[in-house]
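Researcher: Sequence of Tagatose-6-phosphate kinase follows. Predict its structure.
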Amino acid sequence: MIYTVTFNPSLDYVISLDKLEKGQINRTRQEHIYPGGKGINVSVILSNLGYSSVALGFEAGFTGKTLREMLDQFGCQTDFIHLDEGMTRINVKINAGEETEINGQGPAIPERAVEELYGKLDALQAGDYLVLAGSIPDCLPSDMYERILERLEGRGIHYIVDATKDLLLNVLKYHPFLIKPNQHELGDMFGRTLTTEEEIIAHARLLQEMGARHVLVSMAGDGAILVPEDGEVIRERPPKGEVKNSVGAGDSMVAGFLAGYLGTGSCEKAFRLGQAAGSATAFDYWLADRASIVSLLGEPADSYGL
Ligand SMILES: Nc1ncnc2c1ncn2[C@@H]1O[C@H](COP(=O)(O)OP(=O)(O)O)[C@@H](O)[C@H]1O
Ligand SMILES: O=P(O)(O)OC[C@H]1O[C@](O)(COP(=O)(O)O)[C@@H](O)[C@@H]1O
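Model: Prediction complete. Tokens:
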């Protein structure tokens, strides 16, 4: 089974307007509300590609209730822990020529709720995949992911971690199956701006030396680079299309990679399905559906195990 964990889920309020004027009343052209949060997005895309997963995490208040209901409607299985105080955050995503995001703080997560999450994670089985994705609220220790992997060590679980800076660096010693920093996040980890492909590959390899297995570096409209555990580096440009809202493109890529890998065992196919899922999401207002992902593959879906 695949499990995703989102410590700080959201409702994403995605609005489009022609121009955003600071200090003025702006009116939207379009608005949508979607479930959000990195692990949840991974679960939604997996479900769109026919893979079941359980989305774990925390929810609170009326926004948390709506989040659950929306995920139910999308056929996504959840096992959230309810928090009695606060409310699930609303993250604002503004598309006005360029993309601007305002991500909320989220509710405080008490110790007993973290213990409850540990209880759920203790039930994972050897061979399961665990996706840890997204930020950790300020109220929790910044080594939360490390604590989880330390607890699960030696149980034969495959980890996928999509996080920034120390949250990611500190878990490399547990040999995650996949990590997916974007180009800027990879640079931030080393206090540098990475511009050339050679620099990106060299720094991805440094993360491998620290313990990561497959390192997938996403580069938005420039595509992605995979430094696999074994074999040649894969570098491809993404398909072309009109970008509507690239929020969730990275999460879609993680889900596509995992689905492709589980369906074929091939890193190359996994990379292609990841890239198609990321781009299909960028070309949509929300996370891509199966048909739009498959249409970008340019190959029969069954050759990807779909
Ligand atoms: N403008 C775009 N055009 C085509 N594909 C895109 C675009 N933006 C994102 N993608 C696809 O989605 C993947 C992940 O996007 P990226 O923005 O790098 O991730 P993140 O959301 O984690 O920052 C990219 O590697 C690419 O395959
Ligand atoms: O946990 P964080 O880092 O605050 O990010 C949460 C936001 O990231 C998203 O999951 C999108 O992530 P990506 O664009 O990186 O794929 C949104 O749905 C959500 O609002």
